[in-house]
UniProtKB/TrEMBL annotation:
Protein origin, superkingdom: Bacteria
UniProt keyword list: Pyridoxal phosphate
Sequence similarity: Belongs to the DegT/DnrJ/EryC1 family.
PANTHER family for this protein: 3-OXO-GLUCOSE-6-PHOSPHATE:GLUTAMATE AMINOTRANSFERASE (PTHR30244:SF36), TRANSAMINASE (PTHR30244)
UniProt cross-references to CDD domains, sorted A to Z: AHBA_syn
Keyword set includes Nucleus: no
Name of the protein described by the UniProt record: dTDP-4-amino-4,6-dideoxygalactose transaminase
Keyword Transport among record annotations: no
Pfam family of the protein (one): DegT_DnrJ_EryC1
Amino acid sequence: MIPFLDLRRQYAALAEPLEAAVLETLRGGSYVLGEAVESFEADFAARCGTRHAIAVNSGSSALHLALLAAGVGPGDEVLTVPTTFVATVAAVLYVGAVPVLVDVDPETLTMDPARFEAAITPRTKAVLPVHFHGRLADMAEIGRIAEAHGLIVIEDAAQAHGATRGALSAGGFGALGCFSFYPGKNLGAAGEGGAITTSDPALADRIRALRDWGQVERSVHLLRGYNFRMDTIQGAILGVKLRHLAAWTEGRRWVARQYDAGLSERVTCPAQASGDDHVYHVYAITHPARDGLRAALADAGVATNIHYPRPVHLQPAYADLADGPGSFPVAEAYAARTLSLPIYPELRPEEIAQVISAVNGFVDAQAGQTGRFDRTACPEEIAI
């Protein structure tokens, strides 16, 4: 079976420096925050092009604290999208604000700027665009609209580590950027982790206090904060892995190019990226017979996933955010057809070819053809 994700391969390539970093931390006797976390924060901020990065214990905590630091609270509306993981919306509810969903662009699957602008009301306080699957949202237009209406921009960059457009990187477009270091992310910890990026020193100071029980110094609690601190071991691990992020990103883009070139036109591949604005955390195709395709791939030894089978507003816990099915037709149509293929830098050429063969065999058979895959159509560099 070709795994959907195989973190053991990544570990095997980095075992020596990772184990050395963990042992150094264990022997040092400091296990929460500390020098390893501070060093990672400085390096990650530099990578994102921001003055500050504040490490926390998860991407969900990053979203929560970013909203709090920005002053979002009860009665405020925050515009975001239904095509995301539920944490994006849950964080808005945590601060007592009102999530207002707007549909996504059918090509990029990120926030549709026109729908965003149309949804603004006098109660709108912030906009929370999601860089879905690793593709940057249209931050130029979203930023222009937000500025015209006096709105705070907070990026959900949980899937977009290292994505860039022009001189700016994910996490550096808005007032605040929120990242997850869940193990399966492009930059993943050996457990949970997250970070908030900003170039505003006042916001950075507020977030540092909020993550540590509101303390500005030991036993001086100026704010009602939380225990959202990053473990030192996670900071040490992320510090090692960050040095490899650029190479891993290029590896993901290489795999994506093979899929783009080899997959049948009978499936819809992700819209072509512009420059370096997509880091392919997920490579998702769409097909009307998605469930049958997934079953056929499993039979062929290819593991897949679905990101996400239901938009947020069709999840039972969040059904009150819309009027049920039909509320966001683009998001709903996408969710019914999407299928995520294996994509990670360690994916082997012969495995990529096997994935392509299995996909094309099924969709060709669905179209009434032989179902055989002509390997001459496989990209030259991965032909087997």
